[in-house]
């Protein structure tokens, strides 16, 4: 059975006052039961559109986008992404040549977009590429240049950084056009995108010797932190932080697992602290197990402005492709910006 390596991209998460518009492109080569190319659009980490090379059609994934844009919007999206499919198909072949690969399953990804702080007005943008689960080349918007640590990406880096018009176009899209569409989407889906829903928290354990999982679900927006406290102090040893996952209703879930022995449970006091901008809630819960429950504290606290730096997986979305000198395409008028071409 063949497998595909997914890169865990650095997340541009939504927290109090901050919103993001993000597009994820993925190209796949080799013998695998997955579309050659997929594209996903997200506002505040919630999916609102989808395209793949099998259906050859951009489709809405939320009611708010379906109700506020017409057929022209989807036709433009579809035509643009059909072109991106061909571009990325070519790019992944170039990537394989760069890495001296002639066959096998390979994945090339791009994640680009922008973020806007509703409270301060600050804007930011990002453009990240990866190949086979590793960073390939990334836009440094502040210094308006692309940076890489990969020898195979140096040709691309030099080409892009020497094209000043290309760099200016990248900045213009991320700091102006993308922000305008983000604000428009937020207006379209205001009731959904600006709602606040507090997390429901549970502690789960299979057996008395199994790890304990602190599971938070049903929260919105996506910004949440889960911290373990041992005897009043933050505890990071033997802790596995899970990825941010979407629920079918548009909310999110996340978990953190603590590996401790039954003897450590008896000798120490542990708490799971979940921070979100919802209502303050503090309660005692029992671990849900297949044996006698053990009490442990769960604290759900309100956070007025939590700054989060969490690495998440792009859940379910293959996103990577590659190229030999990505070349930009001018921004379209439909909220998305075509990726660079070889």
From TrEMBL:
GO terms for cellular component: external side of plasma membrane; extracellular space. It holds the Pfam family MHC_I. Gene3D superfamilies: Immunoglobulins, MHC class I-like antigen recognition-like. One of its GO terms (biological process) is immune response. It comes from the Eukaryota. Residues 199-289 form the Ig-like domain. Belongs to the MHC class I family. This is MHC class I antigen.
């Amino acid at each position: 059975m063949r497998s595909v390596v997914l890169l865990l991209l650095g997340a541009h998460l939504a927290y109090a006052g901050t919103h993001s518009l993000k597009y994820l492109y993925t190209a796949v080569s080799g013998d695998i039961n997955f579309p050659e190319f997929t594209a996903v659009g997200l506002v505040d980490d919630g999916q609102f559109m989808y395209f793949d090379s099998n259906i050859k059609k951009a489709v809405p994934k939320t009611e708010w986008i379906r109700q506020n844009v017409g057929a022209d919007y989807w036709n433009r999206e579809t035509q643009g992404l059909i072109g991106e499919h061909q571009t990325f198909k070519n790019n992944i072949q170039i990537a394989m040549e760069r890495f001296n690969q002639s066959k096998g399953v390979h994945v090339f990804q791009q994640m680009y977009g922008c973020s806007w702080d509703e409270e301060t007005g600050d804007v930011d943008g990002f453009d990240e590429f990866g190949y086979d689960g590793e960073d390939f080349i990334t836009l440094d918007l502040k210094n308006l240049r692309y940076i890489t640590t990969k020898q195979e990406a140096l040709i691309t880096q030099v080409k892009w950084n020497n094209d000043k018009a290309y760099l200016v176009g990248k900045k213009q899209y991320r700091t102006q056009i993308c922000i305008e569409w983000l604000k428009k989407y937020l207006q379209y889906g205001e009731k959904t995108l600006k709602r606040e829903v507090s997390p429901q928290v549970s502690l789960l354990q299979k057996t008395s010797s199994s790890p304990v999982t602190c599971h938070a679900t049903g929260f919105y927006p996506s910004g949440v932190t889960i911290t373990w406290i041992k005897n009043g102090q933050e505890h990071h040893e033997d802790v596995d932080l899970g990825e941010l996952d979407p629920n079918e209703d548009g909310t999110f879930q996340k978990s953190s697992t603590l590996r401790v022995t039954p003897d450590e449970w008896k000798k120490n006091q542990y708490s799971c602290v979940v921070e979100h901008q919802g209502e303050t809630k503090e309660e005692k819960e029992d671990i849900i197990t297949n044996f006698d429950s053990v009490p442990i504290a769960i604290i759900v606290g309100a956070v007025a402005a939590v700054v989060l730096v969490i690495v998440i997986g792009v859940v379910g979305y293959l996103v990577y492709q590659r190229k030999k000198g990505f070349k930009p395409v001018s921004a379209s008028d439909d909220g998305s910006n075509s990726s660079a071409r070889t």
